[in-house]
Amino acid sequence: MRALTIDHSASGHLALGEVPEPQPAAHQALVRVHSFSLNHGEAAHAIPGGEAGTVPGWDAAGVVLRAAADGSGPAAGTPVVTLGANGAWAELRAVDTDWIGAVPEGTDLGAVSALPVAAGSALRGLRRLGPILGRRVLVTGAGGGVGRFAVQLAARGGAHVIAATSDPSKADVLRALGADEVVTGPEGLASIEPVHGVIELVGGSELVAAYDTLAPHGTLVAMGHASGAGEHFEFGTLFGNEGRHNRTIATYFLLDDAAGIGTDLSWLASLVARGELDPQVGWRGDWSRAAEATEALIARRVRGKAVLDVS
């Protein structure tokens, strides 16, 4: 079968060639891949640092070619969206059935391929905040792939959503996705009223400033590190007096918390099918353009998600 593999001598560290077909375990379905999406973490870290000859990729959507031998998961012919630690960027993928979501017939598989890491992380990060109905939720890095899903899902959950972005030109899009407020820069974060929870996707000084917005008993979930910078808290920031007590910082990584993610992916795909969740695909092309897509992601020229279709 054809697949994109890690090749550090090739443009973008990727080459399209022939590899052996995967051999599914009993609890895995064999999926014919239609489309897959790229994540910034893959483009910036997983591909440049990957082992030569391996097939990368976390997110893919397609159709079940062969159901799992143990009887679990969807039947052959079912449209699906899948998550895995690797192997998505190929014509065929073997996937644990617990990591497969069913997709309603007729749904654009390219659109739903954008869901697993970005929307799955946003959904489970928001759950970590606890009940958000009627509460204030801040999303930093809101203009990125995960951020746009977090804004939509927080609004759907009944939160008052504050979207923080470094790019003022994204304000109208973020409001259309459900943000009640849009702030930019350090002065924007400093101006907001206390919040119940933060989905933090930037790291560095932005994480520190976002933590300072938390009300007592609030939680910040650190899910991204787009700034590439470390965090420095001034002495006294972590004191619990003066109305700042019992504030929590939690870290999160979806691939270490993916049990049962198939159920979440099915629900997210149903929202896309009904037009109730916008995957915000900002770049789409044939998989032969993978190097172009990864370069655009690293340069932050993609607004939302990048999707590649398997020709």
Automatic annotation (TrEMBL):
Residue stretches making up the Enoyl reductase (ER) domain: 9-308
One Pfam match: ADH_zinc_N
InterPro entries, alphabetized: ADH-like_C, ADH-like_N, ER, GroES-like_sf, NAD(P)-bd_dom_sf, Zn-ADH-like_protein
Gene3D superfamilies: Medium-chain alcohol dehydrogenases, catalytic domain (3.90.180.10), NAD(P)-binding Rossmann-like Domain (3.40.50.720)
Alphabetical list of SUPFAM superfamilies matching this protein: GroES-like, NAD(P)-binding Rossmann-fold domains
PANTHER family named in the record: QUINONE OXIDOREDUCTASE-LIKE PROTEIN 2, SHORT-CHAIN DEHYDROGENASE/REDUCTASE
Protein name, per record: Oxidoreductase
Source lineage: Bacteria, Bacillati, Actinomycetota, Actinomycetes, Kitasatosporales
